[in-house]
Amino acid sequence: MDADWRRKTAAGFQARGDNPLNNIIGALDGISIRQEMPSYTEVICPRDNWNRKGFFALNVQTICDHSYEFLWTSCRTPGSTHDATALAFSDLGQHLKDPTHDLVQQVIAEGLCIAADEAYGDSELLATPWPGDGRGDESRDAYNFYQSSARMHIEKAFGQLVWRWGILWRPLRMPFAKRPLVVKVAFLLHNFCRRNDYQPEAGGQEPDWASDAVGNVDHNRKSGPETPRRKSGSAGSELRQRMTKRVENSGRRSHRCIDIYEAVKI
Questions:
Q1: The domain containing residue 243 runs over which residues?
Q2: DSSP structural state of residue 128
């Protein structure tokens, strides 16, 4: 993931919807892939795979770019795992917590970030929404709107992935140990199709984290990294404050603020 790739990717996110946030290079979220209940011979506690939506699942964490290609995926936790904890179990999650990591230092120095929802902890690398819709602050509300616009890419990528591959329309039934590999192949084939639909400019390179091994799974862990807690203070990270200021300086408001303003003016 070189500087040229990061610059072009950030420009791609900014161009979609004329977004004033020009420092986003990826959208992060988790998807629950349905599976049949694993047997007691395959896992210690099958119930760990039962998620809050009411079905057995694999928790797959992934990041996509502005063209809906998946840059990184990790499937190391059962369906009941919170997204922030699932990220913490991954190699990328460990890198994000290491301020001495070369790539992390580089991305922070360039002021770049990954857009994520409120399930993840706010940091200098993960841009998350202000809680409570900005709590009446117009600048924070506008930031939330444009941050959400960037985050929509991962939701659209999930929609394309699921509707493209019929195997994901029903619970996975193959032996439990093979399911993460099947998921990985579906993600890779999705990228293959996307690259035939959309060709990036010449010279772009695949980022380093795209090679994370999805098939390296341990679903029997009973403990692990603590779920990162969101900052309780109202200030948030310096990254989120800078991005909010950028939206404010652009003069942009969320569509909701504009609608309210127009209604009052009338």
A1: 3-265
A2: -
